[in-house]
UniProtKB/TrEMBL annotation, chain A:
<dbReference type="InterPro" id="IPR001709">
    <property type="entry name" value="Flavoprot_Pyr_Nucl_cyt_Rdtase"/>
</dbReference>
<dbReference type="InterPro" id="IPR029039">
    <property type="entry name" value="Flavoprotein-like_sf"/>
</dbReference>
<keyword id="KW-0285">Flavoprotein</keyword>
<feature type="transmembrane region" description="Helical">
    <location>
        <begin position="130"/>
        <end position="151"/>
    </location>
</feature>
<dbReference type="InterPro" id="IPR001433">
    <property type="entry name" value="OxRdtase_FAD/NAD-bd"/>
</dbReference>
<dbReference type="InterPro" id="IPR039261">
    <property type="entry name" value="FNR_nucleotide-bd"/>
</dbReference>
<dbReference type="InterPro" id="IPR005625">
    <property type="entry name" value="PepSY-ass_TM"/>
</dbReference>
<feature type="transmembrane region" description="Helical">
    <location>
        <begin position="297"/>
        <end position="322"/>
    </location>
</feature>
<feature type="transmembrane region" description="Helical">
    <location>
        <begin position="172"/>
        <end position="197"/>
    </location>
</feature>
TrEMBL record, chain B:
<dbReference type="Pfam" id="PF10029">
    <property type="entry name" value="DUF2271"/>
</dbReference>
<dbReference type="InterPro" id="IPR014469">
    <property type="entry name" value="DUF2271"/>
</dbReference>
<protein>
    <submittedName>
        <fullName>DUF2271 domain-containing protein</fullName>
    </submittedName>
</protein>
Length: 732, 163
């Protein structure tokens, strides 16, 4: 519920202020170049700010007929306003050592003039200024609610910068860029608000007023280069110096420093008044610097990036909203809730879970079943219902997703009229500590209710994996004697981009129908162990991916032949020297870490391929342990040569095997890991890396065991190591 | 007699020439404008020469170069806005509360002690406008003194340039 409020206000504010924010951020991005271009002007003299007032002031008095002011701007450009020897009143930049003119004062370029005007008042004078001030404040609130949303999504402050689950382009970069630019955006908006308040006199008076003392006659006037105060002050600390208007004793030097202002007697050099700059004035000054980036190129660039980021957020934010609307709005039920046999209820936050549920709904309708789909918040009684299938996402720390916020209360109130079978599918991510927590809760609610009977146990799907979803569909089909076919959209491919590889070697299928294929790229090609080779068999042009083991400069694939497998059959029919067209996809998340203390590799079946490449490439001899699960001892023969060689050359430290078919009790790779739990916990504790490659089922079992180990030995959830990038996975 | 007429004609001619050349003669005055400690935007300040009939004769100085706001200096805008002659003495930024500005203005000598006035008008965005923040008669005494302002100007001080 709370999330909805944050998201709702985040969105509503963004909609209301979008046009103004658009203008302000475009002009802001343009204006970021002004301080940069100013900084690049050649008016800053090296070490010029170390010149003391006792040096520069007399120099100027000699060079010019009369001097009115000296100013040092935020770029360390020194300028002066004088009457020249020719009698002209001029203002220009000077060299602080010689007092000579360097150039005219920089005139604001018309583009910056235009952008400034638009940026602060939209050419609407006072009205515009008020609008911009208010919008700046709204943007500040948007940034705050945005931070709140990231905190909820990531699960707390500690995980603020941990890995973000990628659902789609807009969502991923909205969050990732948001994390880094929210702080600058908050600074920009707060200073913007402050500057607006200042312009409208809404701040306490911050002007300095000096107490002018009774003047006393000076008997022995000093030259100004002998004033101790002038000898002590370097240009570094100075904002401006105003010369006495006349040689009247009541006219003083006014020295404005960073933080205070002095009145200095022009004959004695005595400081007659010393006032500190008020806090409000200091804040104003800092607001101006932070808002405009004056005097610093780096901050200007940050401001530029932040402005561009705001533009991106506007695009990605609205794109996400539209997608979410589209995902949830287009429910066109063929049956009403009271005449459908299958009731599908969805708890979705971002709309992805809804898409998965709709695929299921469509498949049911295709097979002429009566189905009804709705959100969990619409839970009610269903006259004809036999089955209830719940798709539940989890948000933040195990909270109910948006469209299920009311479900628990409703569930207490509604009394089902007949017994209904149920199945719950949880969508979540291993990267969050509360994996599928909401689905677990819903499953428990139903289990404890006398009218509901379990049709299938709770099934959890990690990172919206289609493969896992398919697995569940198969289970469901099997349980209910149906044959639902889920229609997945496949990405389109460009076959022209494929590269050619020559088959160098191919083994015969072994006892498990697994075989090795060694491919050599015809043209130079960049790849590493752990990358993926995409193959598009001509039968259906549907992409299949295999993990690459890099042995010397060849690609080693380990493939299991399936009876009707299009791609595995294709590979099995290959002869040496035939040509394979395929594409290497870099998979940087699954490369061998060359800078870590220790690596544990876990694989089953053909998932060993990338690890074969990695160990034979382990030139630094990083301590490496390989756990492998196969069916029989014969299964290993295929890989034995490579593994023995790696063990001999100490590129592989230990090799542990689990055979599921060799003894009465089945032993799996996760059992091996549980036996060696000290090793695993010690590797994780020493910042070592764990890599997993193989089937999804194996991965899930292994992750569960690993979670037990880390909780038991290190008192931490596995997700902490995962967000620390100590866990690399490549499973299918 | 003829000679006298001729001489007197020459004298008149000579005198008028002399007087014409003295017409052109002008002096420079250093002028400091000290603002009060008001808060808000910088002020637009316009210094104008006012003839004995109380009409604008010449714009001597404009502080503030964003002409979007010139029309807030209403009275002067009625004079200047129609003709828009070029003003030599426009300086950059406006001056805000507590600041001072020093400028050098040129005043023809025959405007002194002849009923001409100097007018300082001030206007601040979203705040008041003062038609005669400072106004005083151009006398040889006044151009050396300090004169208090009525609005955003605390005082102005004038000093003839030495050379």
């Amino acid at each position: 519920m709370t999330i909805s409020i944050w998201r709702y206000s985040h969105l509503i504010l963004a909609v209301i202020s979008s046009l103004f924010i658009l203008i302000a951020s475009v002009t802001g991005a343009i204006l970021a170049f002004e301080p940069i271009s100013n900084q690049l002007q050649p008016f800053a003299i090296e070490d010029g700010n170390m010149v003391s007032l006792a040096e520069i002031l007399p120099t100027l008095q000699q060079n010019y007929d009369e001097v009115f002011t000296v100013e040092i701007d935020k770029n360390n450009f020194v300028s002066t306003s004088v009457i020249t020897k020719e009698g002209n009143s001029e203002t220009f930049y000077i060299n602080p050592f010689t007092g000579e003119k360097l150039g005219e004062i920089i005139k604001k370029a018309p583009i910056f003039e235009f952008a400034t005007n638009l940026h602060r008042s939209l050419f609407l004078k006072t009205t515009g200024r008020i609008l911009i001030g208010v919008v700046s404040f709204l943007l500040f609130i948007i940034a705050i609610t945005g931070i709140q949303l990231i905190l909820k999504r990531q699960g707390g402050l500690k995980r603020f910068f941990s890995k973000v689950v990628k659902e789609n382009f807009e969502q991923y970069y909205h969050v990732v860029i948001g994390r880094y630019t929210l702080i600058p955006i908050i600074i920009i908006t707060l200073t913007g608000v402050f500057l607006s308040l200042e312009k409208f006199n809404l701040l306490p008076d911050s002007k300095i007023s000096h107490n002018y003392p009774e003047p006393t006659e000076i008997d022995n006037p000093l030259e100004i280069d002998n004033f101790t105060i002038f000898q002590d002050i370097k240009l570094n600390d100075v904002t401006s110096v105003e010369f006495p208007f006349s040689d009247d004793i009541e006219d003083y030097f006014i020295i404005k420093l960073k933080g205070k202002e002095l009145l200095v007697n022009q004959f004695s050099g005595e400081v007659v008044s010393n006032q500190n700059t008020s806090f409000v004035a200091l804040i104003s000054n800092w607001s101006l610097i932070l808002h405009t980036g004056q005097g610093t190129v780096i901050w200007s660039i940050i401001l530029l990036i932040a402005s561009l980021a705001i533009l991106f957020f506007m695009y990605s934010g609205f794109a996400m909203t539209l997608k979410r609307r589209r995902a949830t709005s287009k429910i066109k039920n063929k049956f009403t809730k009271d005449n459908a046999e299958y009731i599908i209820l969805v708890g979705s936050e971002t709309g992805h879970t809804f898409n998965a549920a709709k695929l299921f709904y469509n498949a049911l309708i295709e097979t002429s079943q009566s189905a009804y789909i709705s959100v969990l918040n619409d839970y009610s009684t269903y006259n004809e219902a036999k089955q209830l299938i719940i798709f539940a996402a989890t948000y933040g720390e195990g909270e109910a997703p948006n469209s299920a916020s009311n479900f628990k209360q409703l569930f207490k109130k509604v009394n089902p009229q007949q017994n209904i079978q149920y199945a719950v599918i949880g969508f979540g991510s291993f990267m969050y500590p509360d994996y599928c927590k909401y689905a677990v809760e819903v499953d428990l609610l139903l289990r404890n209710h006398e009218k509901f009977d379990e049709n299938l146990p709770l099934f959890k799907i990690n990172n919206q994996s289609f493969e896992e979803y398919k697995l569940w569909i198969n289970q469901w089909n099997h349980q209910n004697n149906l044959d639902l076919k889920i229609q997945f959209k496949r990405p389109k491919i460009n076959l022209k981009n494929l590269k050619e590889f020559r088959v160098v070697n191919k083994t015969k299928p072994n006892i498990d129908n697994s075989f090795l294929v060694q491919l050599r790229p015809l043209k130079k090609s960049k790849f590493s162990s752990g990358d993926l080779l995409s193959v598009f068999p001509e039968v259906d042009f549907i992409e299949r991916q295999y993990s690459i083991g890099k042995i010397e400069n060849d690609i080693l694939l380990s493939i299991k032949k399936h009876e009707f497998g299009v791609c595995s059959t294709y590979f099995n029919n290959l002869k040496v020297n035939s040509i394979v067209k395929a594409k290497v996809k870099r998979n940087f998340d699954f490369h061998f870490p060359n800078t870590t203390s220790e690596v544990v590799m876990i694989a089953n079946g053909t998932g060993i391929a990338p690890f074969l490449g990695m160990v034979s490439d382990n030139a630094n001899k990083i301590k490496t342990h390989l756990f492998w699960g196969g069916r029989t001892k014969d299964s290993l023969k295929l890989y034995k040569n490579i593994i023995d060689e790696a063990l001999n050359e100490q590129k592989l430290t230990n090799f542990y095997t689990a055979y599921s078919q060799e003894q009465k009790d089945k032993i799996y790779v996760q059992d091996l890991i549980l036996e060696r739990q000290e090793l695993l916990s010690q590797v994780l504790d020493n910042n070592g890396i764990i890599m997993i490659c193989g089937s999804i089922a194996m991965q899930n079992r292994v992750l569960e065991v690993l979670n037990i180990i880390t909780t038991r030995h290190l008192n931490k959830a596995l997700s902490e190591f995962e967000s620390n990038s100590q866990l690399k996975k490549d499973c299918y | 007699m003829k000679n006298i007429k001729l001489v007197s004609l020459f004298v008149v001619l000579f005198l008028s020439l002399v007087s014409f050349s003295t017409l052109e003669e002008s002096s420079k005055y250093k002028c400091m404008i000290q603002m009060t400690n008001y808060t808000g935007e910088g002020a637009y300040v316009v210094i104008s020469l006012i003839n004995p009939d109380g009409e604008y004769e010449e714009t001597l100085y404009v502080q503030g170069d964003d002409d979007e706001w010139y029309n807030t200096v209403e009275s002067w805008w009625n004079f200047y806005g129609k003709k828009r002659q070029n003003i030599d003495a426009i300086t950059g930024a406006t001056i805000s509360g507590g600041q001072r500005a020093i400028t050098v203005i040129d005043i023809e000598d025959n405007k002194i002690d002849t009923g001409y006035k100097l007018r300082f008008e001030t206007a601040v965005e979203n705040q008041e406008y003062y038609t005669t923040d400072v106004e005083f008669e151009l006398t040889s005494d006044n151009v050396k003194t300090k004169i208090e302002g009525q609005g955003f100007i605390r005082y102005i001080r004038m000093l003839p340039q030495n050379n």
